[in-house]
Amino acid sequence: MSPAQTLDVAIPSGGALLPGSLVIPPQALGIVAFAHGSGSSRFSRRNQRVAQFLNQAGLATLLFDLLTADENTRDVVTAEYRFDIPLLARRLTDAVDWLSHETVSRLLAIGLFGASTGAAAALIAAADRPHRVGAVVSRGGRPDLAGEALGRVQAPTLLIVGGWDTDVIALNEQAALRLSCEHRTVIVPEATHLFEEPGKLDEVSGLASAWFVRYLSAGLRQSGRLE
What we know:
This protein has an eight-stranded mixed sheet, sandwiched between helices. It is globular and about 40 Å long. It has helices spanning about 45-55, 70-80, 85-100, 115-130, 165-175, 200-225; strands at about 5-15, 15-25, 30-35, 60-65, 110-115, 135-140, 155-160, 185-190. With about 230 residues, it is an alpha/beta fold. It starts with a strand and ends with a helix. Helix 1 (about 45-55) links the parallel strand 3 and strand 4. The protein has a single domain, classed as 3-Layer(aba) Sandwich (Rossmann fold), CATH 3.40.50. Mean pLDDT is about 90; it is low at about 220-225.
């Protein structure tokens, strides 16, 4: 089998250029863009681990920074950007548009994987690009912060929460009630917010992989690329 293609990319968003890493396995079934959580970046070890799992399942991945280097430096001190959901959602939406036009990715169905506040950004982007985003997965996310966009999401949505993350479980259950799309909430037993317990992040990765393969490869079949 041919090796995966790995590309360093820069995604334009407003006046910013957001660095990222694009990995495309041979005969990719779809592509998943990651929206990291509070105070994180494309170098998040947790998201990189999930991305590797998805790559092994035949899914391309895009890990990129939602904040510029200057914004991130300021955010470390002030935390002013990590909860700026409109900004994060706008930049993720720009990444969706970029993937839709790039030669290496434009034929692939797009999925969004959001962690923490990134989950809200993913849901807003899905609501704003209903014909481009084919599936959403939230890991320990704050979908409640997506607000009115929840009712506009059309992409099948999987909400994954740790069983010991009780406050976030409640917020996810409230958000799920506002979703009219196909959706499912999965509670991973004996896991905290970051799924740091042995084997728990792999469990998250397996759930996310199955969800994306199911819905993004369905998009390929509808387009005639997958028999």
